[in-house]
Amino acid sequence: LGFIMILSLLIVSSLLHTATAQYYALAVDINQQGTSSNFQCLRQNNYATVFVRSYKPDGSGSVDFNAVPNINMAFQAGLGIEVFMTPNPTSSKSASAQVDEVVSALVNGGISIRSLWIQVTSPINWSGQASNTNFILTAIQRIRARGIRPGVYTSSYDWQQITNNAGGLGNDVMLWYWNVYSSGAGGETAPDFTDFRPFGNWNAADVKQFGQNELICGFTANKDSYPLYSGTLKDKQLPKSGPDNLIYVGSIGM
């Protein structure tokens, strides 16, 4: 009887560990043109998702025309796809205009967008904290108005420097935070969220960037991770196209 009880306790303990363990999927984020073989290499090396830059801060801000072909190749390779924009916050173009440019370019390219991330990093590229916060809020409001869920890619340091740790963005705004020791594979942090501390608008995060400027399958890319919950890998993270033949991007946090 004692042996049976011990065995039962061990089984229960194992089940609890399995139920409460957190699993993470790996991703990369890119800002350069890829090839079909690059994206196939990512899939073969167990990357689940690629974050594709779709807007760049060059000039007064412009659509990244590598985005649509990259999205198509990622889709064909069987990768999940997220899109992000790196705006120009000091441009004569409004935040709304920049959002509209990237959304229109993707829609015209046969992409249906469910979420769009705004990059808020590199404080030197921003201006005063009040105007920065207003720019970000305007962009978020415009993303919502287009029927898309907003997300922000930043860090606690960047957010403090750029917005004075602003909150009040709304509970629907997702967070993709970065934390690395240095560039390259040797500067990676753990690909989990144990280092996350609440800041600004967020008490929890959706994605973590844990490595920067690494050579991955022909890309100079950053490494990311995000939690997997029951059913997400099969039902949500794999690429989809609808009956309208559009490619649907943006599943994390949905």
TrEMBL record:
GO molecular function terms attached to this record: lysozyme activity
The UniProt record lists the keyword Signal: yes
One of the protein's GO biological processes: signal transduction
Domain of life: Eukaryota
InterPro entries noted in UniProt: GH (IPR017853), GH25_Enzymes (IPR051595), Glyco_hydro_25 (IPR002053)
Stored PROSITE patterns: GLYCOSYL_HYDROL_F25_2 (PS51904)
Signal sequence residues: 1-21
UniProt keywords, alphabetically: Signal
Family named by the database record: Belongs to the glycosyl hydrolase 25 family.
Record protein name field: Glycoside hydrolase
